[in-house]
């Protein structure tokens, strides 16, 4: 198979088009746990809620061996390797990107704060929270088809998001989220590079995240840390994030430097994140610490240094865990972070559903992403990944159908690419265009606007 035939199994303006929007949640009033045949009765007697589970439990991988597939792939980029659908999770990578928005309340909080250092602290917590959903998520998301889209409307959380697969070689996903009250915009483009190193798979999330707090006329940019899945051949799969993340406030010159620490030989630093906020003169104003799987705190640098000296003097035995969860909350995440006195809690991860392990380790937020809400199907763009038959089949536990549909879509994409090549036709993106990030000066895919006008006549037929 030549490079042209390889299938890559793989994120500004604010438009005021509210008058054209339709609220999905108002289309039908129905509790997802109820089976109601009379929609009018449902509208009167029940309240529609987002689902709390998937239609079927996770497909077992016990009868499949990844070794035979990966043994010849050491050092290669995995986007060029055709993986069996059983190793996927029933979400597109575009939907996985939207999980950055799970803790949008942090952005709203940053918008309300008057002090720039306080805002940076919360933005840093948001940057950490954006990767928290990856904890124990060892399934591979479906690679988006060229032209595939995903929209997320969350009126209760005050934002909407649109993403598009803008490139196939290399695979690039672009996204744009915006406040419904024009308080913020969050956007970026991601070019994930995956490599297999014998016992682990390493993911480098190339691409810049940009968060604009419009009221404060501030723009923050950063790149996500490296991600590594260990024991892909033998043993229990586990994930670590590592590397330095530098968040820059382009308006004030402030920086937050976060160190996602590698596990280390004895696992002492597993999941640990530590960093500081400094101003343009490099004076430290705050220390941030915690775990990307649990919580993040901030503390005064002098208090932090005093604690470190005291702890070192005591040989580390003085550490005592401070638990802030109520004993009544049985689903609370047990914190293993040593809380330094005078610290302020910035963020705490939301507990996962009790049945998460049987549902691909999805969070409650992820559980809802492929759901077709009442009235939504007629409004979505035909390219939205909720229309993808392979993902839908896998979600329903139909592994053979999912595999067959995946192969069909891959072949359809190859044929379309050959036709464009024969006609010397260039692919044209629908909702994003290649441009320059105004804050970093680097190349970036920027939202052209207009998606929520819901004029989809020129959308390609990709499914």
Q: Any key phrases for this structure?
A:
single chain; 463 residues; alpha+beta; 6-stranded antiparallel barrel; two-stranded parallel sheet; 9 helices; 26% strand
Entry summary:
It is built from 9 helices and 18 strands. With 463 residues, the protein is an alpha+beta fold.
Explain how this protein is built:
The chain has helices at 39-45, 67-70, 93-98, 105-112, 116-132, 301-313, 364-367, 389-395, 399-422, and strands at 88-92, 140-142, 149-154, 159-167, 172-179, 184-196, 200-206, 209-213, 218-222, 226-230, 238-249, 255-260, 272-278, 284-291, 295-299, 344-348, 432-436, 443-447. It is globular, with a radius of gyration of 23 Å. The chain is α+β, with helices and mostly antiparallel strands and 463 residues long. It is built from 9 helices and 18 strands. A hairpin with a 7-residue loop joins strand 10 and strand 11.
